[in-house]
Amino acid sequence: MTPFLLVEMKVKIIYNFYMLNSQSKAYFKRAERLFVGGVNSPVRAFGAVGGTPVCMRKGKGAWLWDVDGNRYLDFVLSWGPLILGHARKEVVRAVKRAVTFGASFGACSELELELAELLVSAMPSLEKVRFVSSGTEAVMTAIRLARGFTGKDKIIKFIGCYHGHSDSLLIKAGSGAATMGIPDSAGVPKGLAQETLALPYNDFSAVRSAFQKYGDEIAAVLVEPLACNMGVVPPVPGYLEFLRRITRRYKAILIFDEVITGFRLSFGGAQEYYKIKPDLTCLGKIIGGGLPAGALGGSKKVMDVLAPLGPVYQAGTLSGNPAAMSAGVATLKILKKEQPYPILKERTEMLLERAQTSAKKWSLPLLTQQVESLFTFFFTSRPVHDYAGAKEADTARYARFFHSLLNKGIYFPPSQFEACNLSLAHSRAQLDFAAKSIEEVMVHG
Ligand code: KE4
Q1: How far apart (Å, rounded) are the C-alpha atoms in residues 394 and 415?
Q2: Residue 154, domain member (yes or no)
Q3: Cβ atoms of residues 439 and 354 within 8 Å
Q4: Does 220 share its domain with 282?
Q5: Does residue 83 belong to any structural domain of this protein?
Q6: What's 394's domain CATH number?
Q7: How much distance in Å is there from the Cα of 229 to the middle of ligand 1?
Q8: pLDDT tens-digit profile of 227-251?
Q9: Does the CB atom of residue 262 touch ligand 1 within 6 A?
Q10: Distance 164 CA to ligand 1 centre (A)
Q11: Which of 182, 226, 260, 280 to mutate to test the pocket of ligand 1 (most atoms within 8 A of CB)?
């Protein structure tokens, strides 16, 4: 990049930052007084990319608008729930209708059953489900249920995978924990942390050794069947089948954390996509259609160990609330009817092909990893099969790339250790605009 171009780019970034983001900056000044770090979830703080977070005011389709009136093509989509795009009319209509009858009763209600029947129709491994209000709650409950069902305490998780912020799982975690450099959170009692074995993802021998050493103490293996919280890192061939075999052999529970992949990779999630039947499945994001919802599900034999039938306690004030259920039902009905997965995949491939062509033209070390409509840009020439590989990518270049795109009206995740995703609302024309913006950004390296 010539010195002139470098100066020109820096002037543009500074101008945009100060002139086009004044309201976001004013918001953030106020927010920092009341919210820790100015945010309600750490990854939103732009800690990994620098700069002041943008305050969003409106979303419609694939677009987001901030409080300064700047428009962005959104590839975060609230971290995955909005596979139909923002404010999809059927979802808005369903939520409006539900809340006019009352948002929450704290009692049985028809919409929770309607959503449960959609989940069970999509995933044969789900004989019973339990709704909760977040992915964290779903995974936290699945861990407790696995420990209660097996009578064993140890859990295997994988380094760089993120499963929400319950104590047992903030051990070498990905997503915001990795972004903030606190994969092992303070405040987790040593005694509890010792019950979590964190192993490298895609490493067969590490799992084999752990079972040889602790086999009769391991309650469960918890895995993102497609890792997305270190960036998108697919399972190597045979890996999930191996986890299924070894958990059966040692009578441990195989838990698929499908909070991201559920209804994203296919209508039946990763378990349909990779043809592996887990013992327990955790869901979130898409099943709430943008409202707070999570779920866990599995065989009757395991699930019936939960209260009120069994001794493993779990509860929630807003579990199955009609407002969130209505958004989930509206979303899943459209996905079930339209089966948009080939379109989402094809449009994602088009975007990534254009990006790769630009990177080659400017000899930029760009690795794009994609499964269906989930993808990540790694600036590295080496393969990324696990968190160690993801960390080797040029995260400083990712930060520059993020801001250059932001200035062009493209909103990527403000962290290398996340997944971009597409919605049904992303049109070819919009993706062409994104591809052109990426090509322009690539020129500056
Ligand atoms: P929530 O508690 O945030 O609803 O879900 C936790 C969770 C569980 N499992 C997986 C595989 C997840 O990716 C998540 C949460 N995802 C992050 C983004 N990678 C949420 C964004 C955030 O933390 O602000």
Answers
A1: 12
A2: yes
A3: yes
A4: yes
A5: no
A6: 3.90.1150.10
A7: 8
A8: 999 999 999 999 999 999 999 999 9
A9: no
A10: 5
A11: 260
- List the domain range (segments joined by +) for residue 147: 89-338
CB 152 within 8 A of CB 252: yes
- Residue 217 tokens, joined: 């103490």
Pocket test residue of 134, 180, 224, 229 for ligand 1, highest count of atoms within 8 A of CB: 229
Q: How far is Cα 158 from Cα 168, in angstroms, rounded to an integer?
A: 12
pTM reported for the whole predicted model: 0.95
Residues 318 and 374 grouped into a single domain:
no
For the stretch 8-40, pLDDT in tens is 666 666 665 566 789 999 999 999 999 999 999
| CB of 163 closer than 6 angstroms to any ligand 1 atom | yes
Whether 46 is in a domain gets the answer yes
3-state SS, 253-270, equals: EEEEECCCCECCCECCHH
Cα 260 to averaged position of ligand 1 atoms, centre (Å): 8
Tell me which of 322, 338, 354 is where a domain ends: 338
134 lines ligand 1 (CB under 6 A): yes
For residue 367, pLDDT over 80 is answered with: yes
Domain boundary among 338, 353, 371: 338
Q: Does the structure show a pLDDT above 60 at 439?
A: yes
Q: Ligand 1 within 6 A of 257 CB?
A: yes
> Would you please indicate which residues are annotated as catalytic (active-site) residues?
162, 257, 285
Identify the residue whose C-alpha is closest to ligand 1 atom 15.
Answer: 164
Rounded Cα distance, 369 and 373, in Å: 11
State the Cα–Cα distance between residues 254 and 146, nearest whole angstrom.
9
Distance 282 CA to ligand 1 centre (A): 11
